[in-house]
């Protein structure tokens, strides 16, 4: 079975545009292949994201479709950016695939709903090291350190000139669950305090006395992208594999869970006060 390439959002947009151009001209993939001298399945693989589109092939397609500037220049720019090598490729042996990193890198808005642990985007290096050692006990010291480095690299999106909007709903229990040494817990809480002050980051805490809420089914992340045509994606990590959801009906359930989870949380000001209180308590 062929596997889809981990396309960036720009890559997916380019493939949509190429299919639209072909459909408008009422050409089948076989028609295109015949006129360009390609194998009859080549365009099928390209449009499905199963084969990399090189710029020479893109040039031939745009010429056949009669595309002129400025649209031609715009599509070429998408083509140049579509399969750029990401920093995460150096760590691909540690993970099941690139899709999560691609989506996190391209997202305009990231919604994190985490009842049991602090998200990787917010973790300090020392805290991340403890988490990874705990969750992946079979990992060697080298593998743990590489995963820590990869997690710190991920946080680079928060330092961009135009960073994504991050909205996180966390459970108070995740903040209170202590790690050793205590200085690691203190530093982690202080980092959350500082992150919550950034204009692009909203952190809301569900207090212990909130009772049960829908989001306790499990941690998940919602990715939304700059272009309205790019379908949002829900991501849920599990012990036996990762799940990516794009179906509108299934996405609706995640949105309902996100809404109910948010309703159970303190507002951002109250949440920041609680984080600061816990950080102060950690000194004792």
UniProtKB/TrEMBL annotation:
Domain HTH cro/C1-type: residue ranges: 18-72
Family annotation (SUPFAM superfamilies): lambda repressor-like DNA-binding domains
Domain of life the protein comes from: Bacteria
Pfam assignment, any one: HTH_31
Record protein name field: DUF5753 domain-containing protein
Species whose genome carries this gene: Nocardiopsis exhalans
Biological classification of the source: Bacteria, Bacillati, Actinomycetota, Actinomycetes, Streptosporangiales
């Amino acid at each position: 079975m062929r596997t889809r390439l981990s396309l960036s959002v720009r890559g997916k947009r380019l493939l949509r545009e190429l299919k639209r151009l072909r459909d408008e001209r009422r050409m089948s993939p076989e028609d295109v292949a015949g006129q360009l001298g390609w194998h009859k399945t080549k365009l099928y693989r390209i449009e499905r994201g199963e084969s990399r589109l090189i710029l020479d092939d893109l040039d031939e397609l745009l010429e056949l479709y009669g595309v002129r500037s400025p649209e031609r220049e715009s599509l070429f720019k998408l083509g140049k950016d579509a399969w750029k090598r990401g920093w995460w490729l150096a760590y691909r042996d540690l993970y099941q695939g690139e899709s999560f990193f691609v989506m996190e890198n391209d997202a305009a808005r990231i919604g994190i709903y985490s009842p049991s642990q602090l998200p990787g985007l917010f973790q300090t290096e020392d805290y991340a090291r403890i988490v990874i050692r705990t969750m992946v006990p079979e990992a060697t010291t080298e593998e743990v350190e590489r995963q820590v480095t990869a997690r710190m690299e991920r946080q680079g999106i928060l330092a961009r000139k135009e960073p994504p909007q991050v909205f996180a709903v966390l459970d108070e229990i995740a903040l209170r669950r202590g790690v050793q040494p205590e200085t690691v817990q203190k530093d982690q809480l202080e980092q959350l305090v500082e992150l919550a002050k950034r204009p692009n980051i909203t952190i809301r805490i569900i207090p212990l006395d909130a009772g049960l809420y829908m989001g306790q089914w499990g941690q998940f992340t919602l990715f939304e992208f700059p272009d309205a045509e790019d379908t949002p994606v829900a991501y849920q990590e599990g012990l036996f594999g990762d799940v990516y959801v794009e179906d509108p009906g299934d996405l609706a359930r995640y949105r309902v869970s996100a809404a109910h989870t948010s309703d159970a949380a303190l507002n951002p000001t109250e949440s920041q006060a609680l984080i600061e209180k816990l950080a102060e308590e950690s000194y004792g």
